[in-house]
Amino acid sequence: MTGVKLGVALPLEAPVGELLALAERVERLGYDALWANDDRLQHDVFSVLAAMAERTEAIGLGPGVTNPYSRHPALIATAIATLDELSGGRARIGLGAGGTNHRALGIRREAPAAALREALTVIRGLLGGERVTVDGRVVRAQDARLDFTPRRADVPLYIGARGPRVLEVAGELADGVIVGNLATPAGWDYALGRVRAGAARAGREPTDVRLCAWLYTCVADDPAVASAAIAPMVATSLATSRPILSELGVEMPAAFAESMERRGWSLDAETTAEAARTLPVDVIDTFGLAGTPEECRRRLGALLDAHPAICEVTIVPFAPAGGDIAETITRFIDEVARQPVGHGTGGKG
Hints:
Number of helices: 14
Oligomer: single chain
Distance between the termini: 11 Å
Shape: globular
Structural class: alpha/beta
Order of helices and strands: EHEHEHEHHEEEHEHEHHHHHEHEH
Low-confidence stretches: 342-349
Largest sheet: 9 strands, parallel
Helix content: 40-55%
Strand content: 15-25%
């Protein structure tokens, strides 16, 4: 994958010591970026990122993704500026609309496109040393200013999105877009159409927006084991993608819908794990990359050949049954990414 940057996004459920060891491993293997998920009520993302900064030397670091509902954008700016200072200028921002911890926090996810637009105004203004006042639909700040000088004003800001309006905001305003868990050329046709519409509205070129493919991934010798590993998170993506399934060319599986309906479409881990057991492989493949190394190379190659503007591939690694996520992290870069794949190869390794 010549010219394509590689990243890993780590869930923060494991003990912190294990997460820090994984960070060192990810950098040692040659990945370019390390994202830390800000999901549910896992370990605190910025505390873990700060510790990762101390244990690594060159890899890019950032929350992937945090959101302006559970974290005020002014505090996101403070945390990112601190991380950038600690890491010697390696920070990056992943910002999205979130949702996995909102029920626990009593938060309502309202007007996500407006929330992200307003959050960008606050974060960029504060990193640029400005005093910021925003009286928005979701975000409010009154004469806010950082009490220290950030190392950089231009920390790269990515918006993570799958919904149409947020994809357009990314095209209009962000440095990059993380297209969340769309693993097929058809899914990317839809996403890029929206990103380009937003870019055109702002008078930007499509090439002004870095494109990052964010993929649930499991590499295993048994493809059924690999699919089962990512299925619970695919269930979450499927549930939250209901308004756009027709644009993705996906039909909601009846058994899945019935399982989720019984639990009120909750996104808690128990509900999604139960519903995931009903998912057919073709639906799992729409939202993730799972299978043998050869299968993963073929599918990733097809995606990159269809959309050569993708400049970064980030995996959210899952452990095959009886293994650990370090296995997927290692096998992906050694047996998938470093083999001939995509961008003119036809995806054949």
